[in-house]
Structure formats: C-alpha cells, structure tokens
Design brief:
- It is a single chain.
- This protein has about 500 residues and is α/β, with parallel strands linked by helices.
- About 30% of the residues lie in helices and about 25% in strands.
- It contains 15 helices and 25 strands.
- A nine-stranded mixed sheet has the order 2-1-10-9-11-12-13-14-15. It has a five-stranded antiparallel sheet with strand order 17-16-18-19-20.
- Helix 1 runs parallel beside helix 7.
- The radius of gyration is 23 Å and the shape is globular.
- Bound molecules: adenosine monophosphate (AMP).
- The site of adenosine monophosphate (AMP) has 18 residues, from strand 13, strand 19 and strand 20.
Length: about 500
Amino acid sequence: MYDANHLIRQLRDSSLGREDDVFARLPDGSTVTFGALFAGAERMAAALVSQGVQPGDRVAVQVQKTIQAIELYLGTVMAGGIFLPLNTAYTGPEVAYFVGDAEPRVVVCDRARLEEISAVAGAAQVLTLDANGLGSLRTLADGQDGFEAVAREPGDLAAILYTSGTTGRSKGAMLSHDNLSSNSAMLQEYWRFTAEDVLIHALPIFHTHGLFVATNVALFAGAQVVFLPGFNADAILEAMPSATAMMGVPTFYTRLLADERVTKERAANMRLFISGSAPLLVDTHEQWETRTGHRILERYGMTETNMSTSNPYDGERRPGTVGFPLPGVEARVMQDGAEVPAGEIGVLEVRGANVFQGYWQMPEKTAEELKPDGWFITGDMAKIDADGYVTIVGREKDLVITGGFNVYPKEVESLIDDLPGVLESAVIGVPHPDFGEAVVAVVVPEGEGTSADAIHSALSGQLARFKQPKQVILLEALPRNTMGKVQKKALREEYAGLFG
Ligand code: AMP
C-alpha cells in the first residue's frame, strides 16, 4: 500500500517485515517500533485528508521535536502533500510571511501559540501538536484507521524548506521525492548505515540536517535512533555506549568536549561521528580525535542541494575540508564564468539529482541561481585541491572587499584561531570611508586570554597589510543560530558604525 508513493516506499522498504523492531528510543525510556511509526503516519495522513489536504497542498508545521512530528512529516508525504517545516523560533509576523507565501491548506502549531498563529493563518486550517505529542491534530489522527499512500512520482514535490534568508527574503526551496530519496540512498551507502546502527538524533527536525540527513538516512537503513528533543550533553553521553553513530553541528562537538565524560571508553561502541551545517574547526577535529580516538567525518550541504560533499568513510578525513563530491554529484569552482585551476578560490557550483527544483514562486531568483544545464550556484566560496578535497572558504556575501582587494574571512580567521588564548573568531567587513570596507576581527578569548594588541602584532608578520584587521573586538561568544552557524549579518549590523 506504499508502492505508488516514491519517497514513502523507499523510506519504508528496509523495515518491511521488521514492524516490531524498535525505530526510536525516547527520553522517557519508551520505544516506538517501525510498525507504530508508519501506522501513526497513516493516521496523520488520513487526518490531513479529512481537513481537505489534496496532492500538492502544503502543510506548514511549526512544532516541537516529537515522534508525532515525524509521523506528521511522513503522513504529509503519504497524503501526497508538501511538508513545510518552520523553525520553532519564528515569531508570528515571520510565520505570517511563510503562510502568505506558501498558502498552505493546513498549519500545525503548538497549542500555546494557537491564537497568534490563527491570526496570521489566512484560509488555512489550524491544528495543534504539542511537545507532549498531543493536540487537536493528534486527536483527529487517533480517530483514523489506516491510509493508502497517494501515488507520487519522483519529480513531485515532497517538501518546501525555507532558507534562513540572510540575504533579503527567505526563499522556499522546493524538494522533490527524488531529490530526497536519491540523496538518502546514497548517503546510507556512503556512510555505511545498516539496520545494526543506533543513531544519536539530537538535531532539530525543521532543518535539512535533522529531518532529511538524520531521519531519512536512518529510515533508509532501517536503523534505530536515540530520539532526543534537542542537544543535551547528559542524554547524549548516556546514549553513547549503546549507540553507533551521531550526526551533529560543530557546536555539539565543542560543547561535548567541555565535558570530562567524553572518553575513548565511552565512545568505544561508536563507529561514526559526522559534522556539518557549519565549519568544524581543525582544533575541534583534533581534540575530538585525542579524546575519543575517532576522526569526525565532515560533510557539506545546504537546504537547496541536500548533501553535496563528504569526507570519505575509509580514506583520509582531512580536517578543515568537506571532502569529495558525493557519488552522483558534480562540483566545480567558478570565477568570471570559467572554472578555476585546482587550489584557487571561486564560487562553488554543484549539479546532480540532489539539486532542488527551484524557489517556490520565485522564477527570477531560481533563474539567477539554478542554470538551465542543471548547475546550481551555491553562493559558497570554495577551492578544490589537486587531490579533489573541497574546502569551503565562506559565503560569497561574507567576502570582504577592502580598497579593491578581496579578503577571504576564513584565511584571517584560521590564523587568529591558531593564536594562544583564542577560542574562535569571525572576520567581517564593515563600511569604511576610505577603503569601502574594513576588515574587522571579532575574537572570543579562552584560557589565559588575549588582547587586541597581541592579535594585531601576531598577524602583522603573517598577513599582507590589507588583510590585517583594522580593528579587533573581543567578545564572550559569537552570535549563532540553532544550527551553529555564526550570524555574521548580526555582527556586521552591530559594528556597521565603527568607522564613521
Ligand atoms: P543551510 O541551507 O541552512 O543548510 O545552510 C547551508 C550553508 O551552510 C552552506 O551554503 C554553507 O555555507 C554552510 N555549511 C554547511 N555545511 C558546512 C560545512 N561542513 N562547512 C562549512 N560550511 C558549511
């Protein structure tokens, strides 16, 4: 009864006949079997259809991370709908933009926000699903019985995920059944996930990393997940001795390193630690290896492309790089319309079955970034070395142009990060009356600490003058979003007035 639905059939395939096996271990000690998960998803699908959801309709969802939310994702796709998850941090006015843009048939939110969301939901039906898995949607679902998955082709849309919108309005990336299934099938194989695996799942499920990379790969493998509502060092460390893999953002690793309980003994059963969504510091990679004996496997992707590159499972995992283009994915580095030689920096483009279908109702934006021959301009600056390893140097829009010279923030950040007394740094460009932009370094000290003078003098011998920060600012912590990405836009705004 799932066969006609491209994505659901594949998500279900590896657990067929294993309905009584455990899919998820929950924090309260209870478990959810594969059979229960898919039965729950069927009830969700039936509930959505009872509310008028038809194939191609959007179902916008702003809820806490629960198994019922996963069932809602699967149920939406089963019903032929398009799943549209929203960051739980979005405010009413922000949700209003997404709802106005995507025109969903149904909006699902936490009961605590029912009034606020109803006020901006327009013609959509508003249902609730709370952090305890209960709510009006759940009640409606509990009264349903079974569902025949709606037929969907590989090219039909399964999800729309809005980009974080650091430049202008947030854009809805349209992802097809095949975009998701081809990437998950490939990652499962590349990272060797099997039904024997137990994956620590502590990532949010409104983002591609937790929803598609972690959840879909686990389902494709028929693996088990330790399903945590969010990052929690105690819960992760408790799960580790009986787990085999973890997917995290770099801040997971830096936070865990601060905990003495991270040891080789505790990680003895683990076979794989994966990091992505933001750059992993070389220092973190090295410390993790010293403490656990494991070399973190760093990979790179984005909402629009799913996963594009990964360090190898067997070969050398090179710190500071994001590895090779994944099987079926092509990557090239371009400048002024031509591919650059190995080792040179330019804008990274990728092509393959992983690349999305375009931005929802934004044909001009789509045409700017997705070329007719299938190459997608990622907006990330990168280089590919002679061995084929890809290094992400930063977002194109974070490039600093000072006095007509290009400064790649990562080059300056890497040098600063290596200095004693420095935890990490972010290099930004701020308006400057003479230079157009000036290089500013925002630095987080650690241990013995450091000073602006110490940083200025350490860099003076190592960097061309135009790359040296005009000002060094010491901060206690860098602003980050939930995916661990440094919010350079916020820093640029904060320090916009530094030079006049
Ligand atoms: P998102 O669409 O929210 O997943 O953000 C995608 C962006 O995150 C990419 O375009 C990169 O700028 C960044 N990113 C993802 N993974 C990595 C990584 N391993 N290293 C550096 N940047 C990354």
